[in-house]
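Hello forum,

I keep getting stuck at the same step: I have a sequence, I want structure tokens, and every attempt I make locally crashes halfway through. Rather than fight my setup again tonight, could one of you with a working pipeline run this one for me? It's a single chain of 445 residues.
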Amino acid sequence: MSDTLALLEGLVAKAKSAGAHAADAVLIDSVSVSVGWRLGKLERLERSESGDLGLRVLLGKRQAMVSSSDRTASALDELVERAVAMARTVPEDPHAGLADPSELATKFPDLDTCDSHEPAADHLLDMCKRAEDSARAVDGVTNSEGADAGWGRSAVAFVASNGFAHSYAVTSGSLSASVLAGEGSSGMERDYDYTSAVHMSDLRAPEDVGHEAGKRAVRRLGSRKVKTCQVPVIYDPRVARGLVGSLAGAINGAGVARGTSFLKDKLGQQICAPGIRIIDDPHRLRGMRSRPCDGEGVETKRMAVVDDGRLTTWLLDCRSARQLGMKTTGHASRGTASPPSPSASNLYLEPGPITVAEMIGDIVSGFYVTDLFGQGVNMVTGDYSRGAAGFWIENGEIAYPVSEVTIAGNLKDMLLNLSPANDLVFRYGVDSPTLRVDGLTVAGR
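Reply #2:
Ran it on my machine without issues. Output:
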């Protein structure tokens, strides 16, 4: 990556020579392979490679950002000229600027985020075949939407006029299967399963993914509506992570600075039950969102964003930190075509002390959610309304499948009333164990 850093250093130097007071440049080279397999036949085989670079220049408090895929000397000269010309015409942004040199990362932990082996397309196809065959072998499965596998690698390099320069690479692999159960006359149901990891060797076995997809689809046959009621709701981990993601959105510094978060006045206050901890860990080995530094070169560190139920911090980049009169928390992320903005890294809710069976055991009537639909979350008010499917709970046991219902509540109350089981598994980058939230409205017939 030394040649790439040298290219970016030259680009930043050109921007300074052209009149920029400060500048930074980012370059991302990516390669990806994806395959699709359905009903025993190849459906898709794609490979793509891309390379983009972005230049941000600052003239006082005016900033502009331009991007290009052309790395010839003449194209880079034009890029600099265009960026500086744009910066002279845009309005001032009092919060724009690079990170202070004292905030920059100087140590870069090895997080094992790059798998050196690129899988062959034939290997990915074999994974798809095995997953779909396993899913279709489940009794009751009648059709398939196919299996998909993919792999990608991104090499990231970043240079800034405040003295920062660093590069690193990340990879990811994935496998999914989706099938249908039942017949048209008596009702059909669809479900899926998938696995993702930084290293291909950490993916679950294709047979496991396919079999689980088939089982999930068959379990949903014969689903019913239920009467509208207020009951405890259990969130399966694959949907519980959405609540953690909603929290991340609510503590994003950009939204807080705009006043558009339902938690904007809650810093330092109790937002969850005592004992609840939500961790952001950018240094997790082989984590799906691990990073040695943030998108502005700032040092990253593990932190409890919620500790013993109390909100301890916002997720801040330099700009949002300046707006709020605070210091960046090292949560900037960026691409090549837009300035930095805050985002979480590996975010997860720590597990609780009880099993899922114990969590369900005292519920006389309740709802176990496995799927959510729609985008009914108002980040300004916290109002929450999502279409849902899953299983009804009666006397502490799963009784029958449920579909075509809506869950409604408010995220402020939901966060205060949630409790976690002990089954946390790191899979997605935003993760949660099974969660129980009491007092939600399930709207049906």
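Residues 223-445 form one domain. If your local run keeps crashing, start a new thread with the error log.
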